[in-house]
Amino acid sequence: MTDRYLKILLCLIVGAMALTYVAHNIANVGAAYNFFVYTTSHQGQEAYPVTLLPVPPSWLIVVAMVVVFALEIAAGLLLLAGALKMWGARADSAAQFSGTKLLAKIGLGCALANWWGLFQVVAVAGYQLWQMPNGQGPDHGSWVFGAMAMLTLIYLSQREPDASS
What we know:
Structural class: mainly alpha
Shape: elongated
Strand content: under 5%
Order of helices and strands: HHHHHH
Number of helices: 6
Number of strands: 0
Distance between the termini: 8 Å
Helix content: over 70%
């Protein structure tokens, strides 16, 4: 039972983190937009001055923000819903409990698509955020948040013994 409680707890933690981040993003939407503009501007790139991705138009930055925010919302809500389903099945057989993990796994997939897919691939690698003066925090943070989601997904995917064991 300990593994089941820990899996539920980890899903609640990552879900709450995703929703907290998106709430801050929405509360600071102007600053978030300015940071997206900064990230894609090619400014402050002295180490590798050539960036292969183009500076996007304003409308594409808004689309990117909507996608990031939607992935954070989806990750949070799916993880919380998955944790609730797992909680309801915590005393069931291993097969029944395993069947309740799908929403949480999809939520973790959304978190990984956001923090490793969009942030690490597009922003850090594609726009070279790693070398921008204000890029170190988001670079590090997206790696850590993605790792939290991946480690939770790995742990969640392991089969646990029957509740009676």
